[in-house]
Amino acid sequence: MTSPATTPYTSPFVLSLLLLVSIPVVFLLAPRLLPPKTLPAIPDADESDDLALFRRAILSSSSATPAPPASAASYFFRRRPSPKIAFLFLTNSDLVFSPLWEKFFRGHKNLFNLYVHADPYSVLELPPTPSFRGRFVPAKATQRASPTLISAARRLLATALLDDPYNQFFALLSQSCIPLHPLPTLYNALLSETAGPHSRHRSFIEIMDNMDNDTTLLHDRYYARGDEVMLPEVPYDRFRAGSQFFVLTRRHAIMVVRDMRLWKKFKQPCLIERRDSCYPEEHYFPTLLDMQDPEGCTKYTLTRVNWTDSVAGHPHMYGPGEVSASLIRELRKSNNTHSYMFARKFSPECLEPLMEIADSVILRD
User: Fold this and answer.
1) What is the pLDDT of residues 264-301, one digit of tens each?
2) Could you tell me if residue 237 is inside a domain?
3) Around Cβ 108, how many Cβ atoms within 10 Å?
4) pLDDT at 35
5) What is the 3-state secondary structure (H, E, C) of the chain?
6) d(C-alpha 336, C-alpha 298), whole Å
7) Are 159 and 256 spatial neighbours (Cβ–Cβ below 8 Å)?
8) Which residue range is the domain that position 140 belongs to?
9) CATH (domain of 225)
10) Which of 50, 107, 152, 203 is most enclosed, with most CB atoms within 10 A?
């Protein structure tokens, strides 16, 4: 009988050979057996809270109608409230330019509502100015290279839909945005844009099927979550790009809040190795609206941004030395039907020079 010490299967030579053979096998099979490493996903609790909010917004919008007049006389003589613009501020720092926005809003309280989504992990040191006071919505954490920025925008849209049935336009802005025209100019531009189907108002949202004629860039962003993650709901030829800052009509805001089909794809976290191509907030909204109502969109944004010297995905940041009347007039220029109404990004130090030209330039056409 062979003793255990001399069993051929336990000899040092055989064990070493098996170990050497197993190493390449592990390297070959591991990528197929182990899930790829991804960036953090949206917490389930956040998703559940949002779904509950979105359901309320959809139900409210489907039944929201102005209260009927008390009598026939009041029907003929009552004044119907004007459509309103919901200004949606998405921020992770102080709203430094709120004094400028106060000038922009002054005298037009019946034409707008205001909502702020501030990352709960950010520290806001400046007290809110009057128009912003009490306008902060329940917020969740946001970060770059993550679908949380989409969630925050949808949260703002849903809150504004619930808050006032007369919110008819929804302008998404950041803390580094400034106005380029008086509010009535923006208001008239939105109301006059009725080139959509059945003469409906259109949404001002940038929609591109390429990015600066660089197909590689769009390709990398499409596959940022994995090779087949977006299929079948979002084939590559329907994938679109555009600025995350838009002005949506009410029907499109409802469309965004109601969506579940594309959201289940765009909410998937990007692969860690492809995080440099992860900008879901620049693709979800243009892709969704181009699929569902392309004729109802202008396909251009009203927010001007300077990408000439971008760094790590961030556009040019204007400093106080660049602020002037000529800069504002230059930023307004557009090759589209309407001039630009907003611009970004401006550093906090720009507040003082902007306030100096607010009345004479920014708020005067």
Assistant:
1) 999 999 999 999 999 999 999 999 999 999 999 999 99
2) yes
3) 16
4) 64
5) CCCHHHCHHHCHHHHHHHHHHHHHHHHHHHHHHCCCCECCCCCHHHHHHHHHHHHHHHHHHHHCCCCCCCCHHHHHHCCCCCCEEEEEEEECCCCCCHHHHHHHHCCCHHHEEEEEEECCCCCCCCCCCHHHCCCECCCCCCCCCCCHHHHHHHHHHHHHHHHCCCEEEEEEEECCCEECCCHHHHHHHHHHCCCCHHHCCCEEEECECCCCCCHHHHHHHHCCCCCCCCCCCCCHHHCCECCCCCEEEHHHHHHHHHCCCCHHHHCCCCEHHHHHHCCHHHCHHHHHHHHHCHHHEEECCCEEECCCCCECCECCCECHHHCCHHHHHHHHCCCCCCCCCEEECECHHHHHHHHHCHHHHHCCC
6) 9
7) no
8) 44-61+82-301
9) 3.90.550
10) 203
pLDDT for the residue 28 = 57
Return the structure tokens found at 128.
Answer: 């809110």
Cα–Cα distance list, 327 to 83, 312, 321 (Å): 31, 24, 11
**pLDDT below 50 — which residues of the chain?**
1-3, 6, 9, 30-31, 66-76
Amino acid 214: pLDDT = 75
Residue 129 maps to a domain? yes
Q: Is residue 70 part of a domain?
A: no
- Determine the Cα–Cα distance for residues 228 and 222; give it in Å rounded to an integer: 9
Instruction: Give me the pLDDT at residue 244, please.
Output: 95
Residue with tokens 């002054």: 106
Mean per-residue pLDDT over the chain, rounded: 90
Specify the pLDDT at position 101: 98
Q: What pLDDT, in 10s, does the model give residues 159-180? A: 999 999 999 999 999 999 999 9
CA distance 256 to 155: 10
Q: Is residue 37 part of a domain?
A: no
